[in-house]
Amino acid sequence: MTTAELSTALPEIITAQVPGPKSKELLDRRDAAIPKALCGKAYPICIKQGAGAMFEDLDGNKFLDWVGGVGVLNIGYSHPEVIEAVKKQTEKYFHTIFNVYVHDGYVTLAERLNEIMPCKGEVKKTYFANSGAECDENAIKIAKAFTKRSGVICFTGAFHGRTNLTMALTAKKVYAVGMGPFPAGIYRAPYPYVYRAPKGYTEAEAIQYYIDELNRIFDEGAPASEIACMIVEPFQGEGGFIPAPIEWVKAVRKICDENGILMIADEVQCGNCRTGKYYASEYWAEAGAAPDIITTAKSLGAGLPISAITARAEIMDAAPAGTIGGTFCGNPVACASALAVMDIMKRDDYAGKARHIGEVVTARYKELQAKYPVIGDVRGLGAMIGLELVKDRDTKEPATEIAGKLIQNAIQKGLLLESCGTASNVIRFLAPLTMTDEQMEKGLEIFEAALKEAIEG
Length: 457
Known about the structure:
17 strands; alpha/beta
């Protein structure tokens, strides 16, 4: 099957079960050669090729991907124009170290991000790292350099990476077992998870509760005068696919402004057209609450490792020479890929694609919610949607086991899903925005069938 044919194909499992024999052979080789921590059993899948929102495994099974490399494939697998841009760059040179000699792709990509990033300031600057964790860590470096302070506020449910600093920021400590000691000066406030706010609260009361809890840090954690920055995901990913309410964001912006604290928006997963805007911080900016610094990665380079840190010039220029940069940061091939992605996403209105997909999927998820009491909440922005499973809608006890069964059932039918949340009971939706309407309908059909089987045991 050609990639063009695969891009419009529908899910199909042709082996007796997944994994088939060829995939099983590679999985066995993996287990023998790779550390156990990277050899999970939940996804017995080995890819052969991918196109659009589809991929084929080694045995010829075709899957619809609603994980998208965990937010990396907004533009889909193997986009022909991105492939061409990458090929063209590799024929010139693979690498420069930007700190030593400059290449045009780095500068051009920085200029274009400076134009569209919805952070505060008229004149902006951008530089590049390689991963989400790196850009988040670099944003905090910048904030500390600018404010001359050392404290950092993060939030419950946060995921910011697996470096020493970002493991400390990340809430779920399964990502940090035995890896301490961690940096000092990190304080955690409750993220505005309105669905799980104290029982009986209205949404307005819940938002005020979360604001009050944030302010408590200044009394019980560290004075505001010692806090350099707050780092927050506009749409929390690993923590449960939770959008930050705009009224809460506006209050946080006010707290930051009053206390000289920089506000960092972590758009590693929610950026690059996923939420129906090019960057989710556009929603913040429209409400008068633009962040000071924005970080992004994942779909920025269509799968090549690149991440970006953007802020107004006076903030960025505060970093002392030698404190930022690195060997592979802003690699020419990754920059070429990112520039092609931006051209395509703007030309073909990928933010509009996200809104369309989000409207259809959210409406269907809400229909399922009315039909199946196990669905406690459906929430999202654009095509970033969380469906939370609970044993009881009143107690909201997480239905972790059903979520796990749903994922396994869906795999056997050709649909790739992933969970998130502290109890792994939220199904995240991150399908490539290239998904066709026919594929979307088939995916929703499989989703309901897999959910029904999981409920019935």
